[in-house]
Amino acid sequence: MLYGKIQDVPINLSGNVAIKLHMGENGGKPPIPIEDVRIIFEKLESSGCKPFLFDTTVLYKSIRNTREGYLGIAKENGYGEFPIVIADDNLFIEKNGIRISKQITDADSLLVLSHATGHVLTGFAGAVKNLGMGCLIKDGKRRVHKWTQPRHDASKCISCGVCIEACPRQLISFGEDGKIRIDYSHCGGCRRCVSACPTGANWHPENGIERSFETFAIAAKNVISFFPKNRIMYLTSLKGVTPFCDCSSTPGKNMCKNLGYLVEDDPLKIDQKAVEVIMKENTEAINMDIWNLFVEQAKKHF
User: Fold this and answer.
1) Which helix (H) or strand (E) holds 16?
2) Which of 156, 186, 213, 270 could link 297 by a cystine bridge, Cβ 3.0 to 4.6 Å?
3) Does position 29 have pLDDT exceeding 90, yes or no?
4) In the chain, what are the domains?
5) What's this model's pTM, rounded to 2 decimal places?
6) Which of 200, 247, 214 has its CA nearest to residue 144?
7) What's the rounded Cα separation, in Å, for the pair 28 and 81?
8) pLDDT in tens, 245-271
């Protein structure tokens, strides 16, 4: 259901409530307005809940790569008035080979508070990505991204350096031997180096995109399996919908007017509804070819 204002959204959870929220990037804006988060806290606290904001550190090189760095950014973006937990990578629980932060699975209830945006890898970022990437420790994130991380064939490389320029995280460089080196420990598999390579020296495995998308869904399903259905809620903001996700300090201009908040009982369902509503406002907002492929893989598990 679509609500115009956060004040109108019913929230019925109990106990210690982990609010899974991306708290923004350095130099960016708060993905969810502070005043709206304040109202959510007031709703939860008035019913006896103990809410806290939660997120995990990122895989790639960023200030958010450390707990201290991310906490600093969260405070700079205005979230410092709320209790915040940034996951400790040493505290995890493993399910289906994917490591999830134990600091979120130990909560009594989970509020998946997502900000709808476009996304370079999946076409759209919402609840499934908030769960299937945002609740994993770094090792878990690597398992999701490994399918789209580039492979490099040195025999085809002409050392033009185009892939170095294309990498948004500066993870590609020339080694002392003049050959291309890729830092896989921080690679998120965005595929930009693959698209930029003029000779096919950079490539990703066959069906790598499909495998990555399905692993996103498996990871998201793993997270919600720790919570009874009445202890989990999906709430997505359709305010400030930008072409790029909140991991970017320059996510681009808003692609449609502010549309309020969506509530559904399933992460894939709320993402599909969000895309439907956004596309009615702007038919070019979301890369539907990529998004439809993501949905095809996610439906195997939802």
Assistant:
1) strand 16-20
2) 213
3) no
4) 2-144+209-298 (3.40.50), 149-204 (3.30.70.20)
5) 0.91
6) 214
7) 18
8) 998 888 889 999 999 999 999 999 999
